[in-house]
Design goal:
2 domains, homodimer, two-stranded antiparallel ribbon
Chain lengths: 210, 210
């Protein structure tokens, strides 16, 4: 398979979310035009995005909603369960631990890690807060697939290095800092400041760009 | 000014975050190679990104860290304060209301809105939970620049329509659904499922793409 850009994978997620929405409302077929409108792109781009993964749809008939949904779920790795640990039991870690949307998508949060003795042992929405000193051992023993990092900027890289050494291959970071990982580890960053800066850029430059 | 792609704005944010990091550690100059490495791009792309906004740096001497930081802050609209409201006082809204990182970047959260009588009137990290029935009135009276949407999927579009009608021009959504806004409103979506799907895609297809 060719190397797929992050932006392509994002669009696949958007297409799937749209297909699931309209599928739940009974739609059986859709078009690349519909998918394009929702994904903020063109129908040519939709066809190109999907063409990476084989041939879909029939000219003039569009795409079968159940078929394309199922294929996208397979491509995105959603046809199975993933074991997730949350590292950091602060405000964001706490909100994430209680976030019901994870389980719906097959993400099983099975441990939250922190160094605060006041938090270790607590039960949060069915998940126990565990001692961060056991993180490496648990990554091996519990075979976490994904670590969600919700710690302050200054602790982030050290924890990532520890987790990578223990074998973790996928990290979603909420830490407001640049983190580096080896090439065989996938890192995604949710950066609140960056999202807001996208808005302030638009608010500031709007007059000029139209 | 030419229409600037969202991906370019994201890279400007990454460059700025890097410049502030090395600036705080005393660095006075940097190169497009350094900026490229951190931004996950090429030095040609860095020069192209910056060229949209005028001429920076000197051939062979690189960029002045304080000058480029200051110019990027200006471009991104960070040289002023922005009034922010949070709509939805659930788990995510609560974590966001207490998030100290906002104020550091000039984002003043001055109201959290909810319909739950048990929450209205509560003080959260210096911010009061207000009645969502007053949202339109407050958008006008308090002149919020940015609304952060943290409500369930099924309430999202209706609330966005209300806010847009009242004059809001920038929305950051945490609601797990597709939302549509008019062309003069900027919408950014933080979608946890989508971030995780980027990771599971990589975990699933990794063998194949190398």
């Amino acid at each position: 398979m060719k190397r797929i850009a992050e932006s392509t994978v994002r669009r696949l997620s958007i297409y799937l979310s749209f297909l699931e929405d309209i599928g739940a409302r009974g739609a059986l077929t859709t078009s690349s035009d519909d998918l394009a409108r929702l994904g903020g792109t063109t129908s040519a781009q939709v066809r190109k995005d999907l063409s990476f993964f084989g041939s879909f749809g029939k000219r003039g008939l569009g795409y079968s909603v159940p078929e394309l949904s199922s294929r996208l779920r397979e491509i995105l790795g959603l046809e199975r369960q993933w074991r997730v640990c949350i590292v950091g039991a602060g405000k964001i870690g706490s909100a994430l631990a209680r976030y019901a949307g994870f389980a719906e998508r097959g993400f099983m949060v099975s441990g939250v890690y922190d160094s605060d003795p006041g938090k270790i042992g607590k039960q949060w929405g069915g998940v126990t807060v565990l001692d961060i000193a056991d993180l490496e051992r648990d990554i091996v023993a519990r075979q976490y697939h994904i670590a969600v990092l919700a710690v302050p900027a200054e602790e982030a890289q050290v924890l990532v290095d520890r987790m990578v050494k223990a074998g973790i291959k996928a990290i979603l970071s909420f830490a407001p800092t640049q983190i580096t990982v080896p090439a065989d580890v996938t890192l995604r960053t949710v950066n609140m400041a960056m999202e807001l800066e996208g808005l302030t850029f638009a608010l500031t430059n709007r007059g000029a760009d139209r």
